[in-house]
Amino acid sequence: MKNIKKFIFKVFYAPKTWHPILFPFIYLIANILHQARKNINLIFCIFNRDKTNYNLLKELDSKGYVVIRGYLDNKEHEKLKDFFTKEMSDNSSSNFGNSIRFGIKVKSLLNNKAFNFKIFTNKLKRLSSHISPWIGCYFEKFKGDNDGQQNEIFHIDTFHPTFKLFYYPYAVKSYPFEFISGSQKFGWKNFIFNYACQIKNFISEVKSNPLNCFLIAGFRNGSWRYNEASIGISKRNIEQNKVTFKVPENTLIIANTAGFHRRSTSFSGEDPERYMINFIERSSIFI
Prior knowledge:
The chain is α+β, with helices and mostly antiparallel strands. The chain contains 9 helices and 10 strands.
């Protein structure tokens, strides 16, 4: 059964970049499927009288993010910190500028006996089924103003609805997460920005190798910075709708990273490091 699931996931995994002729169709299909998933889960919430997750789903759809403070009880919170402290010592790390990431295998999460990671899905119920499956996780320690990936610039991860869970075991005072509320929504401005970036990237790829014009999908890039296209988002929109998350410890943020987001450059001398556990969720159009 596991092998079948892996096969299905590989077959239906959708890349970030497509041939410009196909992209409008793929963009439309991605958002139709997302809306269908959302509505099915809302119906389940109504049927089960699950008002909490119903409200969370509606907020996630409207704003593009939800914030859950005090997510774990104190005992589970301490267990989680202990688990990742051990994982940091047992796993190799990767450096991204001033960011240090410790990769955690999803299998080790689900089979871990010290901390039951199913608590993340059990607590969220319909919300978790809306954004699953997990495809990765890492623990990040960040100090400085550069992660080597330009993540301090507002950007999208991909053109279709996809989700990340950011769990903060400690309070965030430096380099907080920022999101442009509502920027994830399906619409003309969102489409135009993505299409302009797709075309620009396609032209660049064809110039580097003319044979790329025959590719259907799978070009490089796909995570666009807002300054890569002059249409679809403005500085005024950023200033009016920017939300900064300086959150207390034991806070979970769920964000649709098809919306514009970034790591802020604001810094606190009292607490110059930021710790984050990043759960990467559904990144495929079709599942």
